[in-house]
């Protein structure tokens, strides 16, 4: 794929090479905003360009999600040089342009924008020829679960819900993404958000300490390969179903997280499914 701009033809590989240098700069928003001003961002990343603007209806208005995105990218760049985490920050709200909805007397909503945005990542990676096999799952998951830590910031969050977060492979990156997503200019709100994340980290620490005493292991005791071997089948959707049932049973305390109990459990489940 080549892009023509002002009679200059550039390969998408060269464009992304230069774009990645912008993302890894001290203040990526400067370069990204310049690309927006000259019209090149609309060609490279229309999903991000479409976030620009504020719509006002009956005294209800939403923030400019494009400007917010630039602030998030700058925030996260202060703490990491992980290029693909910065890409996730850049793309984390692209689902908002599709899910935006006005509800009378309530205002603007963007329900499920994280899920929709994560699904849009496939076309973005394919169009820009980004390394799909290596990083697409990582970027998709950061976006898909970007609100999950926030939902756990409460004194009523259960150990099981906290433990689900601990099973996430890139939990530190996910929490950093959530913290970088705070762009409010209200000092009191900013302090409150900071305290909330400190509370979440404390909860995570306490659950880990409890689980260490119980010899809990943060990985599943049964692999997909083991399932295929004991049931004598090749990779299929049923294997995924059994793994999800096992995951639910462990996370919700139905069975302990050890091989013996898990093996007996999946043998019973396998009889019903296979």
Automatic annotation (TrEMBL):
Name the Enzyme Commission number(s) assigned to this protein.
Answer: 2.7.7.72
The Swiss-Prot or TrEMBL record annotates one GO molecular function as: nucleotide binding
Q: Which domain of life is it from?
A: Bacteria
Q: Gene3D superfamilies annotated for this entry?
A: cca-adding enzyme, domain 2
Q: What class of enzyme is it?
A: transferase
For this UniProt record, the keywords arranged alphabetically read as follows: Nucleotide-binding, Nucleotidyltransferase, Transferase
Pfam families annotated for this entry? Answer: HD, PolyA_pol_RNAbd
Instruction: Check the UniProt entry and state the signal peptide residues, or none.
Output: none
Q: What family does the database annotate?
A: Belongs to the tRNA nucleotidyltransferase/poly(A) polymerase family.
- Please identify the protein, giving its name as recorded: tRNA nucleotidyltransferase
| Species of provenance | Candidatus Karelsulcia muelleri
